[in-house]
Amino acid sequence: MTVRVATWNINSVNARLPKLLEWLGSAAPDVLCLQELKCATDAFPYEAVRELGYEAAAHGTGRWNGVAILSKLGIEDVVRGLPDQPGYLADPAPDAEPSLLEPEPEQEPRAIAATCGPVRVWSVYVPNGREVGHAHYAYKLEWLAALRDAVRDDTAGPRPFAVLGDFNVAPTDQDVWDVSKFEGQTHVTAPERQALADLRDVGLADVFPRALKYDHPYTFWDYRGLAFPKNYGMRIDFTYANKPFVEAVTDSYVDREARKGKGTSDHAPVVVDLAL
To answer: Rounded to an integer, what distance in angstroms lies between the CA atom of residue 66 and that of residue 124?
Structure first.
């Protein structure tokens, strides 16, 4: 059978629902991993995607995160969140009243897993890191270590398995349009890149997409400064897959067309075709 698996940081699923539905109709993935939903679990547009033949499992709080998996092949064994996932202690609001209680770190909804027919996938939205030295940067590295531990068993199994999503790290200098513009910033630092290498070392390979227009494929372009038409981009959205998944890959590409026009996400979908 032929299976099409994709990942897309949608940057607000309800705000971009018409774009999502249009793309589902044209690209017709069997499984789609979404990130940055910006909606609570019960506010996900289940009925709208169901009309196109998709079951959905979502995990969100309505803040700047949230993940989901859409599938035409069924959804089973859903897991929300990583085992031993670190929490993040958010900065207090400027007008927040002082409290004598010790605040609890928040378990952000950044990972969801499901078995969809013959494949198992994780949809992940790795923390941004904000600034080198910031508490969110340390949280990002801790979160990637927890992801590595969470996927180890599935990676070693015989079933095609992949971790897809927005990793907020460019693995090499070639994965950003001009690495000199990122000096001293997140996404390109040695500890972040090493955390990705540690994840791959459990038995995952980068399913590298074809470049349909440029020599090197990017997946994210800032809304500012005409970054998309100038191709000032970054490759930070990946499909990290185990050997059975990789051996079944027949094609992979970044769908730049979905990034064009008004009202789009600042990320493009990454599509992988499998022959199973």
So the answer is: 9
